[in-house]
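Page 42, continued from yesterday. The earlier attempt failed because a stray header line got pasted into the input along with the sequence. Redoing it now with the clean sequence only.
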Amino acid sequence: MEPKIIGTVLNQMKREGNLPSRTASNSSQNSLAEVTNLPPALMAVKKAYPTAPDLILAINPSRQLQICTDPEKCLFGKSPKLESLNTIYGQGTAEAWLVPEVVDVCQFCGLKEMPDNYQLEKLVTIIAEKYKYLTIDQLQLFFYWFCSAKYLHFYNSFDPFVIIRSLELFIKDINDAIYKREEREKKEREEREHQEWLKSRGKALEYLHQHDKDNT
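This time it went through. Structure tokens are written below.
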């Protein structure tokens, strides 16, 4: 989604009072001073993006094309969780960040009937609550995969259930990826342990051989 379109969305949300009040200040120093008790990881996000609009404009749908070439990094990286956005910037930030992502999907799918404000607001509220443990990189990967026809699809008009059901399929994909990663790490660990055992066994045999040689 183009920045000017996101800007339009943000302006509309401001007019409707759907952006958290903490974003009102234009001073980065004042904004940072409001949350001095954040964990280091969240403070790093706050320093990088002092206000909610800063974050929404920077981490926008076009970023999907940059990060989603490495799905494993998206799935297991250290980007902030949805619920962390509300902790950093105030309640409503997670929902505000999701709006451009959902609108971008609808535009990409070329829907003849776009979601109305009620559908959009309720959908992002459900996602922000039900999937608050997902990171923004994971969610951008989801929307990228959705646009790649990996999950369910719309039929000309917007249907929020298509996204919600697709998210359930995405969660299964995450669980499968976690299982495969754990299995891979287990095999790698077992291989390292086996190699260490062979190495120690070789040293032990070498010692015994040298000991026998010295005693003859």
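Notes: Confidence is low (pLDDT under 50) at residues 1-5, 21-33.
Reminder to self: strip header lines before submitting.
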